[in-house]
Amino acid sequence: MQDFVELAGYFAITASISIGLAYAVTSMRVKKSSPAAFEPESKAVFRIRCSTGVVRSSFLGEEEGAWAISAPLQRDSLVPLRFGEYVTVEAPHSGGARIFKTEILERLEDPPRLLIRKPRHIMTTDRRSSPRRRDPEDKPFWVENEEAKILDISERGVRVASGREFLRGERVKMQVAGQKAVYGWVVECKPNGRGSEARVLFEEPATI
Fold first, then answer.
1. DSSP one-letter string for 43-64
2. Cis peptide before 92 (omega within 30 of 0)
3. 22: exposed, middle or buried (C-beta count within 10 Å: 0-12, 13-18, 19+)?
4. How far is Cα 132 from Cα 9, in angstroms, rounded to an integer?
């Protein structure tokens, strides 16, 4: 009888551990992709991957049960996205980015804007989890053709010190001497008395 009780207790403990592990794994997955539960801030910058490349837009608010965004721009030129086209949207936030897929529902005028379907699921990524170099090579470096300094860098973004200030969501050109220019989006900019310190998210993973 004693052996039976001990065996039953063993199976009970094993089952409890299995259930706990299953719950932990499920929780980890939910953190990566979960039902949409956020409303973007007004004028929040969106990076949109579409059939013509990467364009930028900004969130305007809710309209007709959908999300309204400004007419997309690419290199400061309007890009006409097609009705019914499926796109991937990336919205930077303080810890990284929120990514979701959606559909272009309608094109409207006065002012030019698009209606997109509200996302059902959103993936949150932490871009700062990428390994960062604190002491990059001290080569001449420019942001928007003005000299700047790299403070730290990873393949997904860079933190720079500059003599000027940048607007959050501003698209900037960056170049290291002897290398091709790369582009990125300002996700944070803090004045420091001598200009600013800015965090920039690369449009594409880069090594500069």
1. T-EEEEEETTEEEEEEEEEEET
2. no
3. exposed
4. 49
In this structure, are residues 198 and 166 in contact, taking their beta carbons and an 8 Å threshold? yes
Its pTM stands at 0.54
Label residue 15 left, alpha or beta by phi (over 0 means left) and psi (-120 to 50 means alpha): alpha
Q: Hey, is 127 helix, strand or coil? A: helix
Q: Report d(CA 90, CA 100) in Å as an integer.
A: 7
| DSSP alpha helix (H) spans, the chain | 2-32
Tell me how far apart the alpha carbons of residues 127 and 23 are, in angstroms, rounded to a whole number: 26
Q: What is the pLDDT of residue 130?
A: 62
- The CA R_g of the chain, rounded to the nearest whole Å, is 23
Phi–psi pair at 52, nearest 5 degrees: -100, 0
- Angle among Cα 127, 58, 70 to the nearest 5 degrees reads 150
CA atoms within 13 A on the CB side of 148: 28
| CA-based nearest residue to 43, from 166, 157, 167 | 167
pLDDT in tens, 109-122: 888 899 999 988 88
How far apart CA 185 and CA 202 sit, in angstroms, is: 6
Distance, CA of 79 to CA of 197 (rounded, Å): 31
